[in-house]
């Protein structure tokens, strides 16, 4: 929804950078925060199988992930919680200069969303599930990173009841070329 509004306003000559900062600074999906917290309290972790052990090993081997987010963004804080609950070690920095962070990280404009995470030479943009990041880090592909544009309902940090909208996890390279890494 935000992307449709964002694109429409950009087409109407509203400066995209200013609009992006308004969306980032004002926060995103605050109505999902209470519901996510309740869901997290009632979650039972399944007894691990081989896939869970592989995921846990990949997460344990991952270096600390540096996360940049707006101090007022509720969905970003929920994504940080999701990553920590999965076992990732995070260094979180609240900043009002998210546009600068994204430019410095070379995140393609069409993939930019609310928060940006960096680990090694990789960039992770938006509400990417922890297990996808773990698998990507374990595979270590020749790519710049992954992104989940559009802040889809049902992605980590964007939970809203039982609703889960389909979305793609996009892989991108240093030149900004994209491909679908995974469909959710």
Descriptive overview:
It is a single chain. The protein is globular. The protein has a 7-stranded mixed sheet with strand order 2-1-3-4-5-6-7, sandwiched between helices. The model is unreliable at 1-27 and 29-48 (pLDDT under 50). α1 runs antiparallel to α2 (16-26) and α4 crosses α7. The longest helix has 13 residues, at 74-86. It contains 7 helices and 7 strands; from the N terminus they run ααααβαβαββαβββ. The chain has helices spanning 2-11, 16-26, 31-41, 50-61, 74-86, 98-104, 130-139, and strands spanning 65-69, 90-94, 116-119, 122-126, 145-148, 168-172, 178-183. β1, α5 and β2 (90-94) form a beta-alpha-beta unit. It has 184 residues and is of the alpha/beta class.
* Gyration radius from CA atoms, angstroms: 16 Å
Number of strands: 7
Principal-axes geometry comes out as globular
Overall pLDDT:
79
Q: What percent strand?
A: 15-25%
SSE string, helix = H, strand = E? HHHHEHEHEEHEEE
Largest sheet: 7 strands, mixed
């Amino acid at each position: 929804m935000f992307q449709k509004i964002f694109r429409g306003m950009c087409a109407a000559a509203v400066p995209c950078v200013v609009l992006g900062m308004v969306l980032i600074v004002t926060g995103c999906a605050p109505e999902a925060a209470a519901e996510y917290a309740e869901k997290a309290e009632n979650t039972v972790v399944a007894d691990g199988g081989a896939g869970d052990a592989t995921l846990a090993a990949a997460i344990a081997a991952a270096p600390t992930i540096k996360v940049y987010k707006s101090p007022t963004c509720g969905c970003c804080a929920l994504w940080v919680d999701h990553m920590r609950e999965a076992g990732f070690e995070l260094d979180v920095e609240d900043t009002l200069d998210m546009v600068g962070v994204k430019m410095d990280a070379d995140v393609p404009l069409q993939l930019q969303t609310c928060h940006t995470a960096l680990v090694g030479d990789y960039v992770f943009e938006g509400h990417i599930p922890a297990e996808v990041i773990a698998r990507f880090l374990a595979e270590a592909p020749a790519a710049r990173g992954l992104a989940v544009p559009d802040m889809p309902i049902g992605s980590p940090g964007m939970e809203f009841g039982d609703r889960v909208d389909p979305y793609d996890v996009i892989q991108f390279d240093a030149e900004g070329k994209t491909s679908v890494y995974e469909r959710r």
